[in-house]
Amino acid sequence: MDGILLQILNGLDKGSAYALIALGLTLIFGTLGVVNFAHGALFMVGAFCAVTLQKFLNFSKITIDPDKVDFLGNPAKVKTPYVVEWFGEAAGNGIINWSVPLAILFAIPVMLIIGYVMERGLIKHFYKRPHADQILVTFGLAIVIQELVKANFGANPIPTPAPDQFVGSFNVGALIGMDASYPYWRLVYFFFSITVIGAVFAFLRYTTFGMVVRAGMADRETVGLLGINIDRRFTIMFGAAAAVAGLAGVMYGPINSPNYHMGMDFLVLSFVVVVVGGMGSLPGAVLAGFMLGILESFASYSPIKNFFADYLFLPSIDQIIIYLVAIIVLLVRPRGLMGKAGVMEE
Amino acid sequence: MKSLNSSDKRTLLFVIVISLLAPFLLNPFPTGSGMAQFNAGYPDLMQRFAYFGILAIGFNILFGLTGYLSFGHAAFLGVGSYATVWMFKLLSYNIVPGIILAVIMAGLFSLLIGFISLRRSGIYFSILTLAFAQMSFALAYSVLTPLTNGETGLQVYNDDPQILMGENAITSPHLFGLKMQDTFTLDLGPWAFQFNVGYYVCALFLILAFYLSVRIFRSPFGLMLRAIKTNQTRLNYTGINSRPYTLAAFVISGMYAGLAGGLMASMDPLAGAERMQWTASGEIVLMTILGGAGTLIGPVLGAGFIKYFENIFSKINETVLHGWFAWMPDGLEDAVVWVLHLFTGKGWHLTLGLLFMLIVIFLPGGLMEGADRITDWWKRKRGKDVSDTSKTPAE
User: Fold this and answer.
1) What is the ipTM of this complex?
2) What is the reported pTM?
3) What is the Cα A148 distance to its own chain's centre?
4) Can you list the domains of chain A with their CATH numbers?
5) Buried b (16+ CB within 10 A) or exposed e, A205-220
6) Nearest CA in chain A to B64
7) What mean pLDDT is predicted for residues A182-195?
8) Which domains does chain B have, with CATH numbers?
9) Is B123 in Cβ contact with A135 (below 8 Å)?
10) Which of B116, B130, B353 has the CB atom closest to A268's CB atom?
11) Does B357 contact A at CB distance below 8 Å?
């Protein structure tokens, strides 16, 4: 039982990332009808927002301390980050320590702007072009973004640690009488993603803006005829989707150190999530994201993994389980778990 | 060849002449001159031109004719390479069984993948093929390690069975005794032209592949594929089931990719999982659209263009750039070099991505459309009446 609980918990953090990315993909597809192959790159850019902020905060003034010597016997150079100098020892180090959560504030405007520019500058011109062109141009953009990040930050993963308070793990299982210790930060990530997902749904459900957007998703033309500038709202939704992907990336940094190809790795799986959840269905994307995350984690659970390796000759089933499930879902229920009839059924 | 019209015959002849004379044509600069680094007439690169050409021709049969954008073609390339290396391991270094098995295996594999993914079209199809390609990559990289040797890559070892190997058999890939790596160098004045056995084997396959694709383009089957691209719904309403046609196109193009993979492994008896990654699939797509999807010769040109510039750009590092711009004032020189070095050397992928975007945005018909536009413009400038500016290539 403990093992099962632990696998569910383990699946939640990956599932959260899948759900957030898939949610953004579905939002863009539902509003603008475009499949955004650059969405993984946006996730990666989000993670690198945290890296950038961390770099900024660590900009240091180098002073020579005459009292200390380094190992060569020269006077030692002491680095004092500017934030420490400005805000004092305690507050300054506190800010540096909390750089990942602080990056959220930094990432939201950055991602909104990137999303806005992307839609207005590039994707706008592709609505009337064939789907293949839309896929190709966003794919090209993804390569460009990825390579620019690589040129700037190098090819190696850059560690972005969580605040000290969240390092380590605690026993979640103890709460319900079991034994399963789980890193704090993953729990934070899970609740964070639940909050973001809840916020997106609430925004669409309970605001006038969201209502108009939903109306536009159902029938764009009619909404336009009613004198509402639906294009502008869709552009804003694109920015919001970019921000959701960015936020998923920012907070993911402490779980896996950001590298330039993390976006691509997540993108393919998020597509599978969207397909399984049902193209165009927001709840479907979220549900499928968590489900596949948990499934993947169960497949890497050693009793199950060994069973597949010993009896079905499939070692490391966890690497391909998601794809296998996607194939089965597609064969049995082509429109996905919660897809509406008529949406992308061809 | 009698069913081909004269323009097709000319194109075919062009391809034959170009591929047979490539060692001369790609080697215009004398050895040792400053321009020699721009030569492309050495075996390794010419072989790459040929098998990537085959790959692009095959992809074009699917994407150019039916409009189904597959993002998973690299998987078939990988299957082909693995199959060939296995034949080397089990039988002998003769490439014939390897290439045959590569084509068959890729065909079967694409039948399986095509059967499932072709239940959908449009975006869905692209996503599915992409997922399959990633799955094949994961299979090759870790799951099926006994078959693919995982991360290390599959290669031939001394203790492999190789049951058809005689006492003094050749220990590198060969075609009934003709070693792939054998090169005959012809010295003509300052030039050194290299004629490589492996290249000519690839070139013969390229010509064959091209001829087949011309026949497919001009056949009733090819017309049916074009009809699918133009309006599949309408085709369905006329009572035609289009699935067998798309599946056939998918399998044919998968077999082309398998052939390319087999040749790749025959030139260098190694097969690695990285060949199946989805960036590799993206490169295939790029080759085809860069040259001109739906045209006969475009994909071959696109493949050559990309492989050539990949080779050239990778050679240009910061030192070379500083050498080129040494005549500029210092500050300006550094600035120019800093900008350019993002795109050259290790930055080739950035150039590739930008090129990809620019082509899709401004020239969706690829180089062939560009050539057409220039000819039109030229004719108009000369005052000739060009009432019919039909864009046949882009369909």
Assistant:
1) 0.84
2) 0.87
3) 19
4) 2-58+98-332 (1.10.3470)
5) eeeeebebbebbbeeb
6) A132
7) 87
8) 6-276 (1.10.3470)
9) yes
10) B130
11) yes
